[in-house]
Fold DNA-3-methyladenine glycosylase I.
Amino acid sequence: MTIKKENITRCQWAGNDELYIKYHDEEWGVPLYDDDKLFEFLILEGFQAGLSWITILRKRESFRKAFDNFEALKIVKYDAQKVEELMQDAGIIRNRLKIEGTITNARIFLEIQQEYGSFREYIWQFVGGQPIVNQRSSLGSVPARTDISDAMSKTLKKRGFKFIGTTICYAFMQATGMVNDHIVNCICYNR
């Protein structure tokens, strides 16, 4: 099912919220290769667990401010005092395990960059370096996980990443354009 607005067909999940529509039209499913942005999405997807993505989008600027624009080199230095400061920040999701997990993930992210030259080189290998272009006809045909997201989750967990289950990995893959899950009649499908 799709929503038509001004004769434009979009994926149904974009709804009528202008922030969601902008995200759908400009970001979701666009192949992303910038390490800092990939890290941001990985962290935000983890914070989204159990919540709606629109909640995260509405808080994204606060997250960027609170987490030093997702600069892993800064985050890895966060101490107990910084964690407590973040726990008091009403602009973000105040979940201690997710905040502490972000610090752990920053450390592992930096280790991967060191090992592979970039996080991009590492993460895009799961799809052979090219976006997977699916041919979904409806929102109902989009899975919550795939064998690839299972493998990504398992490998990242083995490295020590937190909040990185297979559903989170698949949402990350969709958001960063590793897979194109726009429905085939969506304006963004053939982007």
About this structure: The chain has one domain: 2-180. The domain at 2-180 is CATH 1.10.340.30 (Endonuclease III; domain 1).
